[in-house]
Amino acid sequence: MAIQQDLGKKGEQIALDHLTEKDYKILEHNWYFRKKEIDIIAEKDDFLVIIEVKSRSVGFQENPRDAVNMKKQRFLIQAANAYVNKYNIDLEVRFDIITVVFLNDQEYEIEHIDDAFYPTLRH
Fold it and tell me: What range does the domain containing 6 cover?
């Protein structure tokens, strides 16, 4: 478990660097809601962007973005609503996923998926 946590922390830092390079304003990192966390909350182009970061090593069978299942999406939507209400934010909310696949200790591939999912009435 510790190795996966280290991989996750390293992936989140890569995601933060990527977002900063793309002129995102980082508002929160590891923001907690009901004992669970949103990896990154940022602002860009009049959107509040809720970002889930998924990191994997190259041999992992599951595509990292597939780990953001319906249960995780429901949590992210609830947490985003709580954040918007707490801070009285008047921006449209977007949900992104950033995947980081480590090829080895030094190399990785990053994918940033804008609008990865949309809230629906059943959430």
Answer: 2-117
